[in-house]
Amino acid sequence: MRVRRLLAAVVTTGLIAPTAAVVATSAPAAAATATQIVSGSEGRSWLHVNKYSGKGAAVYKSDTISLSINVADAAGEQVYDGGLTVQRKLKGNKTWKTIATSTSAYLYKTVKVLGTGSYRVLYAGNAEYAPASAQSSVKAQRDVDINGISGRKTGFEGKLSPKAKVKIIVKKKVGKKWKKFRTAASSNKGRFRVVLPAPGRRGAKFRWQITFKGSKGFAATKIKGTTYRY
């Protein structure tokens, strides 16, 4: 009889415990409102490259990037609460670096182009609004400070920024085609000097295409020039 009563007590305890647990469980919280990263400037992306140099790819430190970031809900209504973080990862780097933050859900800032890389914006969200993110990329080239050489010798010279040893390919226009003429290279300090021939007769011109090869996270830079005799 003692054994039976003990078993009955154990069974009863087992039946009561789940019931108590169910009663203690609270209802799930309402889902946060979905959000999205949008531009704060009409007709532009949240990341816009200002190409003051007028060249193809953005130029190192000469061109800038405008960050114009807002957050909106699914209906397109602007969200103001929650923080923003903007990060950059330059080509060749493994980690993201924070370059701008805001304690509100909007941010307007301008940064310099430092190389080819990826940019991302992270919206933290809060109890009412869900987090969101967006990513974009920028292609950059080195800044080439180039000057012509005149006098007894003709050609070009200058320096690259950031400094680097870069291969230089020189092509001469023959008819309607560009044909490889010679190769050169900048020094480790980014300086270069290339001597080119000028035509034998006065008034004639040779046309050149000069390509600074891309390297270390920077795209190639192409420049056209002319040598002539006067």
Give the number of DSSP strands.
18
What is the residue-mean pLDDT, rounded to a whole number?
87
Shape: elongated
C-alpha-based Rg, rounded: 32 Å
Low-confidence runs of at least 5 consecutive residues: 1-29
Helix content: 10-25%
Strand content: over 45%
Helix and strand succession? HEEEEEEEEEEEEEEEEEE
CA-CA gap between termini: 125 Å
Decide which structural class fits the backbone: mainly beta
Major beta sheet, specifics? 5 strands, antiparallel
In DSSP terms, counting alpha (H) and pi (I) runs of 4 or more, how many helices? 1
Keywords: Signal
Signal peptide: 1-31
Organism: Nocardioides deserti
Protein name: Bacterial Ig domain-containing protein
Descriptive notes:
By secondary structure, the protein is mostly beta strands. The chain has one helix spanning 2-24, and strands at 35-39, 47-50, 58-59, 64-73, 78-79, 84-90, 97-102, 106-112, 117-123, 132-138, 140-141, 143-149, 154-161, 167-174, 177-185, 191-196, 205-212, 221-228. The strands form five sheets. Strands 1, 2, 4, 5 and 8 form a five-stranded antiparallel beta sheet that branches. The protein has a four-stranded antiparallel beta sheet with strand order 7-6-9-10, with no helix packed on it. Strands 15-14-17-18 form a four-stranded antiparallel beta sheet, with no helix packed on it. A hairpin with an 8-residue loop joins strand 9 (117-123) and strand 10. It is elongated and about 80 Å long.
